[in-house]
Amino acid sequence: MAARERGIPASIYRPPQIAGHSVTGECKLDDLLPLMIRGCIQLGSAPSLGSLPLELMPVDFVSRSIVQLSRNPQLLGKPFNLVSQEPITWDQMFEVIRSSGYAIQQAPYREWLDMLRAAPLENSLLQMLPFFERLDDNLLKSVPIDSENTRQGLNSNPIPYVEPALVIQRCVDYFSRIEFIPRPLPRRAQVV
């Protein structure tokens, strides 16, 4: 914003939650989404947030969108909210994780927070406990996002669509493959 105020041409690109690569699932492992998935698997529980939409976009789609938008001189100086074509809900994301072979129960947020407070020190979410403790009901609500500039800017060459559940599945497969999370239990050995 300061650069723009000084006359330097600059655009603002606001990505949603960045997920792993649309094909390989590879991503930065110390980001919120991978740590949330890992920590909830370690805990065996995830907060139940119902139909709260989770705006996520594969990293390769984010980078392609920004490159495409930045190459159009007519769009210079505009803000761009990158949004997924179809968000996945929080509970749908954990259904994908459960269907991959991970026994995760869902609990009301405050109950889940108490479980996290009592978690072993190796739980990857403990480092973010102060963040989770500050969340209130207002921050857990969906707000409309104006993506008109992005839609118009990508209209001539839209980024392909990948089902959000498939993106989550590919991320979970990648996490398991590199042993970021334990291998899933065989179907017959799962405890429900």
Classify the helix fraction into a percent range. Answer: 25-40%
> Which CATH top level class fits?
Alpha Beta
Strands of the largest sheet, in order across it?
A: 1-6
Q: Name the CATH superfamily assignment.
A: NAD(P)-binding Rossmann-like Domain
Strand content: 5-15%
Counting copies of identical and different chains, the oligomeric state is single chain
Distance between the termini: 51 Å
Which architecture would the CATH scheme give at its second level? 3-Layer(aba) Sandwich
How do the SSEs run, as a string of H and E? Answer: HEEHEEEHEEHEHHHH
Radius of gyration: 19 Å
Entry summary:
Helices cover 39% and strands 11% of the residues. It has 192 residues and is α/β, with parallel strands linked by helices. It has a single domain, classed as Rossmann fold (3-Layer(aba) Sandwich).
Commentary on this structure:
This protein is of the alpha/beta class and 192 residues long. It has a single domain (12-182), classed as NAD(P)-binding Rossmann-like Domain (Rossmann fold, 3-Layer(aba) Sandwich), CATH 3.40.50. Helices cover 39% and strands 11% of the residues. It contains 8 helices and 8 strands, in the order αββαβββαββαβαααα. The strands form 4 sheets. It has a two-stranded parallel ribbon. It has a two-stranded parallel sheet with strand order 2-5. The protein has a two-stranded parallel sheet with strand order 3-8. The longest helix is centred in the last third of the chain and has 14 residues, at 164-177. It is globular and about 50 Å long.
